[in-house]
Amino acid sequence: MKHALLTAAAVATLATSAFAQEITLGRFFGACEDAGTDTTASVGEACIIQSIINAADAEIDGVSINTLPTDWGNYYDQIKAAYAGGTPPDVHVMHRHRIPEFAGIGALAEISDDLESVGIDPNDWSENALAAVSYNGGIYGVPMDFHANLWHVNMDIMAEAGLVADGKPVLPSSPEELLEHAQKVKEATGKDYLAADFAQFPIGVRLVLALMWQQNANIFTDDGTATINNDAAKNAVTAITQLFDAGLANPRLNYADSQQAFLNGEAAILVNGTWVVDFYTAEAAKSEVGLDNYYVADFPTLFETGATWADSHMWAIPSTLEGDKKMAALKVLAFINDHNIDWARTGHMAVCTSVVESDAYKSLPHRDEYAGTAAIARDTPPSERYGAIQDVLNRELQAIWLTGKSVDDALSDAEIEVQDLLDR
Amino acid sequence: MKRGYYWLVLGLSIPAFLWLVPTLWMVSLSFQPNDVLARSTSTTFFGLIPFPFTVENYSALFSFGQTPWWFLNSVIVSLGMTLGILAVSTTAGYALARLDFPGKTAITVICLIGLMVPEQAAFIPLYTMFADFGWHNSYHALILPRMAVPIGVFLMMQFFRAIPKDIEEAARLDGVGWLKIFWYVMLPLARPAMMTLAILTFLYAWNDYLWPLVSAQQRDYFTITLGLASIQSNFAQSEGLGRVMASGVVASLPVVILFLIFQRYVVQAMTLGGSKG
Amino acid sequence: MVGKSGNRLSQAQAAWLLLAPFLITYLLFLVYPFFQGIWISLHDWNLLEVAFNPDAKTFVGFRNYERVMWGRNIEWGLFTAPFWQGLGFVGLALSVFLRRADRLSRFNAIALGVASLLLVVLPGFHPGEEGRWYDRRFWPTVGNTLVFVGLAVPGVTISAMVLAAALNRETKAMGALRTLFFLSQVLSVTVVTLIWQIMFSPRQGLIANITEVLGGTPINWLTDEQFAMAAIVIATIWWSLGVAMILFLAGLQDISREIYEAAALDNARGVKAFWYVTLPNLKRTITLVVVLQIILHFQVFGQAHLMTQGGPNDTTQVLVRYIYQTGFRDSELGRASAMAVFLFLIMGTFSVIQFIAGREKT
C-alpha cells in the first residue's frame, strides 16, 4: 500500500526519502501491481517477486524500494543505457550469462567481502550457485535460482494415447520414438503432441541446444570457434522438424499462443521453463480450463547424455554504489536471499542448500517430478555476445521451420554469423 | 444528387465502422474479466460486446497502476515540447521571414539543411551527449532534442512571409520597434499557424517512442507510450489481457476527448498547414 | 514585456535576439550531435566500456562502414538480380523516351533516370566465389525497410486520397465520418501495436475468431513470413491515414468549384471528374503527402519492435530497429552510427527531392 501511495505522488517519494534510503530496483518478470506483502500467497513469477520486494520495502528499517518497470524485450538494452548514462538501478536482477558482459568492464560491485555484514552466507549456496555468480574469482551477485526447460505434460492426452505407465508419462528416448509418440497422440486424440514458442522467444533455440548437448556437442568452443554446421546440430534440428513435417506440431505459435494451446488441452506436451509450474498448477485446478491433469517432467534424453537448457537469475549492485546506499542495497539482497523458498514456489530450483533440503521445498507441487533437472542443467560457454548469439540462432532456426530454408544452409549461415560475433 | 449522397454516406459508413472495430474491441476487452479472456476473447459477438462485464480492470489500474502517473508524464512532456517549439519557432520564423540582417541567407540555408537530419539518425550521439551531462531521466532530456528540429521554424517562416508587408510598414512608420511589432502585430496574426504547429508537435510528442526508450530508464520519467510498451510484452506472463487493454484505453481516452473537443481546430489547423506547407 | 527596449534595437539586433533561442538549441541538440555521430562512426566505440573509461575507444577510420556495407570478394554483375535490374533498364529507356516525346518534365525525367540507374547498379553487387558480406543482415534490413515504405506509402496515400475525395462535403454526416477515420491517428504507437498484436493473434485475435466462424483456418499473421510485413503495414495504414486525409481535404478545397462546374458541362462527373479534374489539380498535395510519408515511414521502429520483434526470420527487421539493436543490445555504437549516417544520406536525398519538387511546381 505504501508503494501505491508512492506511485501516486512524487511528493510522497521525496518525503519518504528524507528519512529512509530509497533503493531503485530493476527487474524483469513482468508487472504485478497488486502483489501485496504476503510472500507465501502470491502466484506467478511477477507477483511472487513483487511480493518479496514489497515485503522488503515494508520490513527492512530505513529502506524503501522503488521498483522500475521494465519489460523483457528491452530489459538489457535499458540496463545498459542506464549504466552508460550513470544512473543504474541500485539493485537489479540479471542472468548468469550476462556476467561477463557487465562484470568484465567493472560495472558490477564485487561483494564477496560484504556478504557477511548483512548476514548472507555464501556457504549455504550450492556449488553451482556460487559458480553462477562468480567471475574471475570474485562474487558479483546473489544467486536466486536455477531455471531450466521442462516438459509440461497433459496426462489426460497422454493416457488416451497409451503413453502413461505407473502414473508417469512415457517420454521418448530417441528421435524416432519422439515421432512415434507424436503419431500415437495424433491418432488417438487428433491433437498435437508438442507445443512450444518456436516463433518468437528463443524456446525453440533452447530445445535444439539441449538436443545438441545431449550429443556432447556445443554451438561454440571455449576458445571461440563456432561449431554449428555439423551432424550433431543437424540431428537436433531434424528431431524437431520431423514433427512439423508430419503435421504433429505447429511451429507458428508464439509464447502466449503455445501456452494457451496447452492450457486449452490442445497439446500433450508444452516445452517451457520452470517459471510456469505454479501458474499451470493453479490453472489446472480450475474446472473451466482445458488442462486438468498436469504433470511436470524432466527434459527427456533423446540422445546419449541428459541435458536441458538452464540459466540462473541473480541480483547485482553497481560498482558505483557507496556508503549507506550500498549497505541498504545489500540488505535488499539479503532479504531476497532469505526468501529463496518463496521464489522457489514459482517452480524454479532453489540455490540455498538449506532450502533445497527443507521439507517445505520438497513438498512444493510437482517438485519431485522434475528432481532430475538440476543434474542435467547446461548452458553455452560464457560470452559477452550471448544475446546476439541467441538472436542469430533464433533467426536461422525460425528460417528453417517458418520459411522453409534448408537445414544445411541455415546451419552454415548460423555458424558464419556466430563466428563473426565471437571474432568481433 | 440527393439520393446519391445518402448512398455515399451509407457506403462510407461500412469502412468507417470497420475502421472503428479495433478500437471498440480494445474498449470491450477492457471491460471483461481476465480469466474469461484467458480462455476466449470472443465470448459475446466476437468479444465486441463486453459480456460478462466487469470494471475490475479499471479499479485495479487506478488503485495500483502506474498508468495515471505515466499519463501525467506524457502530458508534461508533450505540453513542454509544444510550448518550447512554439516559442523558438515563432521568434526564429519571424526573424527569418521579415527581418533583414547580414548572414540571413546563410542562416536560412543552415537551418534548411537541418531538416534533412532525421531524429532517428541522431539518437545515438544525443544519447552519449546527455549521458555525459548526466541529463537522462529528466523532463528536459525528453523535451530538448525535439526543440532543435527546424520544421516549426519553416512552417512559421512560410506563414509570416505570406502576410502583406503594409501591415508591418504602417507600424514602422509609427515608430514601433521590431520586437513590439512581432509581439503585438505578428503573433496575433500567426495564431492559426501556431495552432497547426502546436497540434502537430503535441501528436508527435505523445507518440514518440525511440528517444524516451533510450533516455528514460526510471519509472518517474516513463511516458505513457513507453509505459504501455513495457506492459504489453508481458501480458502472457501474469497480467491479464483485460488489464493491459484498460491501460490502453486510459492512455488514449484523454487524447481522444481532447481531439473531439478541438477537432474543428485540428482540422482547420491541418488544412492551413497543408495548403501553406 | 519586450516593447520598451524594442525601439532602440536595430533590425539586425532584433533579428539575432529573436533567432538566438532557436539557434542555440539547434546548434546544441542537432548540429553538434550530427557531427558527433559521424565522429562516433569512425571509432570502435563500446557503449558500456566508453561510459566507464572515456579512452576505451579506438579510431578505425571508415572500417565501420566497410564492416556494415561491404564484404569480401564483392562483385558486380549485370544479371545478378534480373528482375530489378531489368526494371531499371526499362525505367531508363522510359525516361529517355518520355523526355524526348516531351511527356515528362525535365526534373521528373532526371528523377526517373537516376532511380532507374540505381536500380540497375545497386542490386548488381553480390559476393563472388568464396566471398561474403561482412554484415549479412544490413542490406536485407535496408530491403525490408524499402518494402515497408513501398507498401505503406501507396497504401496510405491512395486510401487517404479516395477517402478525402468521398468525404469532401460540408455536412454533419461527412464531418462525423471524417472524425472516425482520423481518430486512430491520435493514438500512441504503443496503443496501436497493443491493439493490432491482439487483433492478429491466431488464437485470441478478432480476425482469427471471425475467420474460424466463417470456416477458414486462422492465419498466423505475425509469425508467418508471408504475412508479418503485411500485418505491420495494415496497422500502420490504420494508424497514420488521418493526417494524409486531412492534407488531401485541404488540397481539394483549393480546387475551385468553377473547374468542376466547367467539367460537369463536359459530362465529367463522379469518377470521371475525379480522374480528369481532381487528380491533376492534386499533384502538389500528392507530392507533399508522398514525400512526407516516405520520410516518416523510413524511420519506422515501434511497429516492428513491438509487434514482431523483427521476425520471423528477420523479415520485418527494419533499419532503425537494427541501429537500436546494434547500439544498445550489442553496445557497438560505432557500427550503429555508421548505419545512422547511411539513414541520414537516404533521408537527405528524399528531402532534396522534396525541396526541388516543391520549387518546380511553384
What does this structure look like?
The complex is a heterotrimer of chains A (424), B (277) and C (362). Chain A is of the alpha/beta class. Chain A contains 19 helices and 15 strands. In chain A, the strands form 4 sheets. In chain A, strands 7, 10, 11, 12, 13 and 15 form a 6-stranded mixed sheet that branches. In chain A, strands 2-1-3-14-6 form a 5-stranded mixed sheet. In chain A, strand 1 (21-26), helix 3 and strand 2 (63-68) form a beta-alpha-beta unit. In chain A, helix 1 packs across helix 2 (10-17). Chain A is globular. Chain B is globular, with a radius of gyration of 24 Å. The two termini of chain B are 34 Å apart. The model of chain B is unreliable at 273-277 (pLDDT under 50). Among the domains of chain C are: 75-133; 139-331, MetI-like fold (Orthogonal Bundle), CATH 1.10.3720.10. In chain C, the strands form 2 sheets. Chain C has a two-stranded antiparallel ribbon. In chain C, helix 5 packs antiparallel against helix 6 and helix 9 (189-200) packs across helix 11. The chains are: A alpha/beta (424), B mainly alpha (277), C mainly alpha (362). The interface between B and C is large, with 106 and 104 residues.
Indicate the proportion of strand residues of chain B: under 5%
What is the name of the CATH architecture of the domain at 69-225 and 271-276 in chain B? Orthogonal Bundle
Question: N- to C-terminal separation of chain B?
Answer: 34 Å
Instruction: Let me know the number of strands of chain B.
Output: 0
Please tag this protein with its features:
heterotrimer, B: 277 residues, mainly alpha, MetI-like fold, 14 helices, 75% helix, 0% strand, globular, disordered C terminus, C: 362 residues, two-stranded antiparallel ribbon, 4 strands, 70% helix, disordered N terminus
SSE map:
The complex is a heterotrimer of chains A (424), B (277) and C (362).
Chain A: H1 2-8, H2 10-17, E1 21-26, H3 45-59, E2 63-68, H4 75-84, E3 91-95, H5 99-103, H6 127-133, E4 134-135, E5 138-139, E6 142-143, E7 147-154, H7 155-160, E8 164-165, E9 168-169, H8 175-189, E10 192-195, H9 203-213, H10 231-245, H11 255-263, E11 267-273, H12 277-284, E12 294-297, E13 308-311, E14 313-316, H13 323-338, H14 340-344, H15 353-356, H16 359-362, H17 373-376, E15 377-378, H18 386-403, H19 407-423
Parallel strand pairs in A: 1-2, 1-3, 10-11, 13-15
Antiparallel strand pairs in A: 3-14, 4-5, 6-14, 7-11, 7-12, 7-13, 8-9
Chain B: H1 2-30, H2 34-39, H3 56-64, H4 67-98, H5 104-114, H6 123-133, H7 139-147, H8 151-162, H9 165-173, H10 178-189, H11 191-207, H12 210-215, H13 224-232, H14 241-276
Helix pairs in contact in B: 1-14, 3-14, 4-7, 4-8, 4-11, 4-13, 9-10, 11-14, 13-14
Chain C: H1 3-6, H2 11-41, E1 43-44, H3 47-52, E2 58-59, H4 63-69, E3 71-76, H5 82-100, H6 106-121, E4 125-133, H7 138-167, H8 172-183, H9 189-200, H10 206-213, H11 228-253, H12 257-265, H13 270-281, H14 283-298, H15 302-308, H16 319-329, H17 333-361
Antiparallel strand pairs in C: 1-2, 3-4
Helix pairs in contact in C: 2-17, 4-17, 5-6, 7-11, 7-14, 9-11, 9-15, 11-14, 11-15, 14-17, 16-17
